[in-house]
Design goal:
Length: 351
């Protein structure tokens, strides 16, 4: 007998990107940073481990919030830490959305939003992106029991951004809190952090998985006005960030020189990858993230994905209902991109 809730039984569940066990595979499918994190991270984690792990960690991650507050220009009580930004998304959903309330998000976008709404027993108010990756009136239209809206910015899989002024207009028009998911924002030209200061309903979530090369550490945070943070803190797990993660994350955000250098490398390779894919006949969006979205007008994206996989290169094949499919390619190190292009060129030209 299945004792799970009927709505849980009916769910498909979130499917993460493929994580191969072999070491010879070139992984360009999960938007990981191709470079090691700042050396200061390992040093900080080592010191924390040597100090002993027999005691519970600081439940609010004070050291991180203080250093992040300095970097971001906000008070520490405007920051809540999470076990990755996925934890932040979960906390926000549990804080604002009850059963049969409505959650709004755009599509194509981060598929976890759908899963979080389903877990909460919420109504999904899904708005389709325009073909130019803009959002129309539907995204701000009044809706019964609308309690929360998610906005990935930069968006995935497109890598596109809405400018802060556009997001501000959305936030002002919505009747509910807006969570701006800035997982990839360090690779972009703009961000929405200032909107938090001017609109009490705006939250900005970020992660250290991408630009800080700490996907394996699991650390994220949200910036919001203290009244919002106070309510979200009631919902989070008591010790949702462990002592090693807090130490490593604090060291990472402290090393802004490393971040600047790393982001510059990724952005340079992103430009080269986009140009090369364009020469192979793909339509590539103007990405502000650490990946590109590529669509070929005539070839099967699924077949290209499978052919590359058979030769040891993983990219992400993605299909969206009422939209279509394409390939999302993470920006790897230069030698990884060279290997991808060397395999992809004959596949494209041979068909």
């Amino acid at each position: 007998m299945n004792y799970a809730r009927p709505d849980i039984q009916a769910m498909t569940g979130y499917t993460p990107g493929e994580q191969p066990k072999g070491t010879k595979v070139i992984k360009l499918n999960t938007n990981e940073n191709p470079y090691p994190a700042s050396p200061k991270v390992t040093e900080a984690i080592t010191r924390a481990a040597q100090a002993g792990l027999q005691k519970y960690p600081d439940a609010s991650g004070t050291a991180f919030r203080m250093r992040a507050g300095d970097v971001l220009g906000v008070d520490p009580d405007w920051i809540l830490c999470g076990n990755g930004s996925d934890d932040i998304l979960t906390i926000a959903t549990r804080t604002f959305v009850g059963e049969n309330d409505a959650v709004r998000y755009a599509t194509p976008s981060y598929v976890l939003y759908k899963t979080l709404a389903e877990i909460q027993g919420a109504v999904q108010d899904v708005v389709r992106y325009e073909r130019d990756w803009t959002l129309g009136y539907e995204f701000v239209a009044p809706a019964e029991r609308l309690k929360l809206a998610y906005l990935a910015n930069p968006n995935s899989p497109s890598g596109t951004v809405l400018q802060p002024g556009e997001v501000a207009a959305i936030a002002d028009a919505l009747p509910c809190p807006l969570l701006v998911d800035e997982a990839y924002v360090d690779f972009a030209d703009s961000n929405c952090l200032d909107l938090v200061r001017t609109n009490e309903r705006v939250m900005v979530s970020r992660t250290l998985s991408k630009s800080y090369a700490l996907a394996g550490l699991r650390f994220g945070y949200v910036v919001a006005q203290p009244a919002i943070i106070e309510q979200m803190a009631k919902v989070k797990d008591s010790y949702n960030c462990d002592a090693l993660a807090i130490a490593g994350a604090t060291a990472a955000i402290d090393d802004q020189a490393w971040l600047v250098e790393n982001v510059a490398k990724v952005r340079a390779t992103r430009g080269r990858l986009a140009a090369a894919l364009g020469e192979l006949g793909f339509a590539v969006t103007d990405s502000q993230a650490n990946f590109v979205w590529a669509v070929h007008p005539t070839l099967s994206h699924e077949e290209l994905y499978l052919d590359l996989k058979s030769q040891g290169v993983l990219v992400r094949y993605m299909r969206y209902d009422h939209w279509g499919d394409g390939l999302r390619v993470s920006v790897g190190a230069d030698e990884q991109i060279d290997a991808l292009l060397a395999l992809l060129a004959p596949l494209v030209r041979g068909r």
